[in-house]
Known about the structure:
Number of domains: 1
Number of helices: 3
Distance between the termini: 41 Å
Number of strands: 0
Structural class: mainly alpha
Amino acid sequence: MHDLLATEKQVIGAYxxxxxxxxCLNLRNTLEKNFKNVEQVQYEIFNAMQQKGWxxxxxxxANEVQQLKNDSNTLAGNLx
Length: 80
């Protein structure tokens, strides 16, 4: 399952690169649709592994999560 999860992550990265580098709107839309499908499969694999105890994660401290949200919002605002 770890190999499957790693492969899905690589596929997601490839779709992401394709979307950001495509100048053809039709291709970009197709890649985005496929990206969303693969992302859902990746999440299902991750969730199954987590439920079986094969992939342990810890929740980040709330203050760190909030800081990351703030930083992301600031960055997004600066890009406008």
